[in-house]
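INSTRUCTION: Work out how this chain folds

Fields: amino acid sequence; protein backbone structure tokens

Chain under study, with its fold:
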Amino acid sequence: MILVFGGTTEGRMAAKELEEAGSLFWYSTRGGEQQIPLHHGKPVSGAMDKNRMDEFCKEHQIRLIVDAAHPFASELHSNISKLGIPVIRFERIYPERDSRIIWCKDFPDAVEKMIGTKRLLSTAGVQSIPKLKALTGTEIFHRILDRESSISLAKKYSIDQSHLCFYHQGEDEDIEIDKINPDAILLKESGLSGGYKEKADAALSKGIKVFAIMRPPMPESFITVNGPYGMRRMVEKLLPEFYLLHSGLTTGSCSAAAALAAAESLLDGTNPDRINLLLPDGESIPVDTVCTEKGHAYVIKDSGDDPDVTDKMEIHARVELLDIPDIVIDGGDGVGRITLPGFDCPPGEAAINKAPRKMIEDNLRRRFPNKGFKVIISVPGGEEIAHRTFNPRLGIEGGISIIGVSGIIKPFSEEGFINSIRKCMEVAKASGEDRVVINSGAKSEKYLKDYYPTLPSRCFVQYGNKIGDTISIAYELGFRKITLGIMLGKAVKLAAGNLDTHSSNVTMDRDFIAELLQSINCPKEISDMAYSITLARELWEIIPGNLLQSFVNEVKSRCKKTCEHLCVEASLTILLIDDAGNIN
């Protein structure tokens, strides 16, 4: 059981990531203002002191806490640390401290440094009002949240309405500052999600003094992460049973981590066995590395519970210094070469996608901002394993692809599968043909290739069960001739209005099939047989021969009706395939 202390952007992110587990957790907020959709989580409202926390954790058998509360909620963090329960601190991402800002260790220090300020805009929140009382001789305007509890508290502190201003999501910081025209502005170091940088930049650009109170330190016992992926992976480690299936790392993340470790070994003379990897969303996660010699390291690919053929493979990186501050990335043994257009890189280049290339560059630039590197990524055994991937179909020869948009693999990820469909579709589009033929798998594709003998192989794209997503991608990429090849089991699901035909989402609807048979005037004894069949393909045997064509036409018509809104200006052809390979 997990208890989340939220009420923040990080709290919402934590809850969203935990929801994916389908397991029960608790989400605690101080007040009732923040309403977030929870399906598996249960909300808890009201401030908790140490005793109440103890009682709650014992009552609900809490075994792990995610502290995603505001960084300045020091008393809350202290109480959490005393519970004797493992704590993941979901921290904010903080920019580097700007030397133009006057940094203050706490409110008394800020008050002392702000003496002499005539007109101050405080964005430190309604709770800070009493802490600024000692700043006499200064006209203070307080920017607070536009909600009843904050306004009520400001009135309790005897703040005149004319000295209150309110924060609204997406508001231009310049407008509020121009209204107040302060001599100085007071901020808390609240991180990127707290809008701290926008406020500071707006004030500094106008020549206004900026005072910032440094965030207080967290208890040393907290395990700190700064994003949802890092939180998930730490939950998987500390409470393995919470997620039924565990996440993993992409080949792109492994390559970037190996490159960074190799660069550190080359320039620092160290052999790091773990590095902090910067992911595309800005968060950092720890990744175990192995350094074999200066300038060379590898990462053992961890795919979690995703059925990935690259799991446990070694992803190697070798780096060399360049005389210029460029980063050149290429593939070595086991990394495929692109032979067809339609990829991030032109034919002849290593099959290292744009996102992994950027990850490698970003991580090296962050650690070594003024250095240039040549990076060679290699994968022992990659050429052999590539035959079990999409690569031969995509025209990638000699090895696997280095891929991954987010850097993280979520098991059986729909996003990952749809990205694979998109990549296949982009290759099909780059062929220059105006037709794409989508199909469920190898069996139906074989029949369809015979039906379209002059169409290049790369124009046949498999949808698995994601019919709607595949049609949408084809239309989005500009195809205006789309053929959908489908066998009867999926066709009756699609005809019933289901664009995703996976058995976990939809089962064969016997009522619908009976109604379908009645619509073509099948005798009642035939339509009643719909309730006794196990597989849809049995319909080929029970429908009278004189009604088969009517049945085919009706199924195709209903399939087309389900799909045509996804490709309104395209010609959509439906081909129904029977078990013998006959195409109707």
User: Anything to note?
Assistant: The first strand starts at residue 2 and ends at 5. DSSP finds 20 helices and 29 strands in the chain.
